[in-house]
Structure formats: C-alpha cells, structure tokens
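Researcher: Predict the fold of Non-hydrolyzing UDP-N-acetylglucosamine 2-epimerase.
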Amino acid sequence: MVEHPAGEVAVVFGTRPEIIKLAPVLHALGEDGRAVFTGQHYDPELTDAVFRSCGLSPLTPAVTGVGGGSRAQQVATMVDQLSALFTRTRPRAVVVQGDTNTTNAGAQAGHYLGIPVVHVEAGLRSHDRAMPEETNRLLVSALADVHCAATPENARNLLDGAVPAGSVFVTGNPVVEAVTALLPDEAETARLLAGHGLDAGFVLSTVHRPENTDDPARLTALLDGLGRLGAPVALPLHPRTRKALAAWDVAVPAAVRVLPPVDHRTFLAFARSASLLVSDSGGVQEEVTVLRKPLVVVRTSTERPESVAAGFSVLSEPGDLVAHAERMLSAQSLARIATTASPYGDGLASRRIAALARDGAAALQQV
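Model: Structure tokens for Non-hydrolyzing UDP-N-acetylglucosamine 2-epimerase follow.
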C-alpha cells in the first residue's frame, strides 16, 4: 500500500552543512515539510548537536549502511533505499541542497519515480571535473525540475548549460538566515572564546578537502604558511586532516593551536571574533560574507566566485598564503568588506524556496 501524505515535501540531507542550510527551509515549510536524513555524516555526537542548534530534533537515518562507504557505494545505497522510501510514502516534491552524494542520490530517487525535484543552491560551478562535488552538481542540474539559484551568476551557469529558463529562479541562499539564526550574541561569544582560551586577534583556519589533505607537499606548505602569519592560529581539526597529518608525518607549527572539532554555533562565534579566516571550505566562503570577515581560500578553484568578486575572499595556493593574508588584512580590503552586502541574498531565501517547493511541485504535477 502506498501512502500519500497530503501536501508533504521531503527535504533530503545527509551532511552537517546540509542540515544547517536546509533547516530554515524546513522551518518555512512547517507542517508541509518532512525531514529525511541519510546519515552520510554518521557520527551522532556531531550531527545531533547540529540538529539541536538548528532547532530540529535529532533524526535516526532513513538509510542504513551509508557512513564510511566509498562514493559509489554511498550513492547506490542511498538511491536504492530512498527510492523504496518514496515509493512507500510518496512525497509531493523532493528538495535537495548543494553538491553532496546525498544531493545526487536524492535527486535520482525523486526523478526516477516521477516526483518533482527542487535543487537548492543550484548552478554552482567550479569547472573542475576533478572535484567530486562538480560531478554531483552537473548530475543534479540534469535531473531537477525546479532550480533555486543563490545568485544571478549561478542562474547564468544553468542557462548556459541548457536548463530551461522557466525552471530557474534566483532565490538567494538560506545560508544568510542560517548564520543570522545561529550566531551567538556578544556575551555568549565571549564565553565560548574564553572556554577555548582564545584572545582577540587570532586567525581561524579549517582544512579538510582532499586536494589539501591527500597531498603531503601541499599540506606541509599550508601548515607552514599558517605558522608564518605572525598571529596565533586556531585550527579545529577535521578527522580527515588529523589522519593525514599522522599519515604524512606533517609537523604542526608552534603558532598553530589544534582544537577538536567544534559545533557550528561555536565556529560562528570564533569566526566573528577572528581577524582573518583561512579555509578550503565552500560554506565558509558564504558565511564570511554575512559576518563581513576576510578569508583566504586555499584551493585551486572555487564554485563561489561571488565571494571573491565582492572582495570577501581570495583564492590562494599554499605557498602564497602569507602574501594573500596581508592583502586581505590591508586597510583598503577591510574597509570594502565592512561596507559590502552579502552577494547571497536578503535573508528571505528559505521562504522563496518553500513556496517553490509547494507551488512549483503542484504546477508540475498538474502538467
């Protein structure tokens, strides 16, 4: 027997960044939304804290056997089990976000069953097929029925890729409201910094992408650059980076203080207080535009050129990190950052996306 919950929209996510960005969409959907967690990030100690900080109840994964598998295993397992789930309880629409394996699998499962697929943060392009995320983006763009582009440039990428114009909408990015909702006030920020022994003027860094962690020379150069910034560096250490440091026997400079992973609310407190951020994260490139903080992106390419164009960030190879940090900390750069609005929207993206998930799906089902 197939159940058809009235008006229900399945919001599919599996990683901590997806939870953070889709929580505002779930709140905007209200009773019309159903959260579907795949468990791609499978550590409950970390994911449960993210759920709670985003105003959601922790969820048991709807898919089993995903965490720790290869990319092919993860996608295949999720497509199979999500398809079975959507067959039993067929949603009105399937919402996916970004470019993860969960995004790819959720879009496939919805598309194969003839369920309208809504892609949040559609149209990002690095034009670097070596990035697994780029493959996921291209696949989901081919499958989605409603494309929620965060920026006009993202929309142009879709149109240039022959996506029908009538299916592309510039909504903004829910990261703006997510950061606003999660950012601790000044008193809580002070307590969090004190609890981790951090003083004003520090640099905040995160490193986790394979292009940095899987190349010992690159990882060594990145750590060396952090050590030469002339300021104390806080480095909440991603498990992948911890393993890489041990595997490659890379030394951490004395100026770099390694911290355990922190929840996102604490990370935002650190980010608002840091003088500079150095990261290879995609989400951080967006968040600094809301916090108005300078960022050095240690990557060879980025799918978020809007942050660079607006002056919030700069792309850098590890060996150029110090020079780019000096540039981002110049008086001219800091003045521009302080007076520039985020290119990712006005904080109403989740409402627009929720309306498209409800109304767009209804229109598509009537065709």
